[in-house]
Amino acid sequence: MVHDDSRPAPEGPRRRIELDGAEALRLLGSVSLGRIVFTRHALPTVRPVNHVLDGGDIVIRTHEGAALTSRTERAGDPGVVVAYEADAIDPHTHLGWSVVVTGYARLVTDPEDLARCRRLVRPWVDQAMDQAMDQAVRIRPDLVTGILLTADGHDAPAGV
Q: Which of 16, 28, 108, 145 is buried deepest, with most CB atoms within 10 A?
């Protein structure tokens, strides 16, 4: 489906406001879809995934054969360095927010924690090629940044 985004963005001054880490994580927790960035064959790879915040960690689901699963499975302490991005930006006004988290991803191996993660995160895609989304990855945020894009003199967009 193609959307007509031909409407011009509203005129007027814009502001970019840096968010503190707590506010950025609160906003990230208000949406369920984001993008994880990790290294595969020495190159950056981006995948859309759904998530929840759990005890300050970002939790996503994956399957046994996924590239991220195998990367995190082989990782020692503290895990594999990843970036996670989520946003809510209006396509017409270009106002909203964007949050980027850089941290360490680890495969959830504790059976009780894995069962909890499976209850918390329902995969947004059905089984991939007959592979159940039965694995979970926890991302421990190390660096959290966020920006708010707002029209000067106006309140923050909805959800902020």
A: 28
Residues of the chain by 3-state class (helix, strand, coil), percent to 5: 15, 45, 40
Nearest to 67 by CA among 112, 117, 131, 110: 131
Report d(CA 40, CA 57) in Å as an integer. Answer: 23
Integer CA distances (angstroms), 51 to 2, 4, 105, 108, 127, in order: 26, 29, 13, 14, 17
Q: What pTM was computed for the model? A: 0.82
- pLDDT, tens digit, 9 for 90 and up, residues 115-141: 999 999 987 766 555 567 788 999 999
54 three-state secondary structure: strand
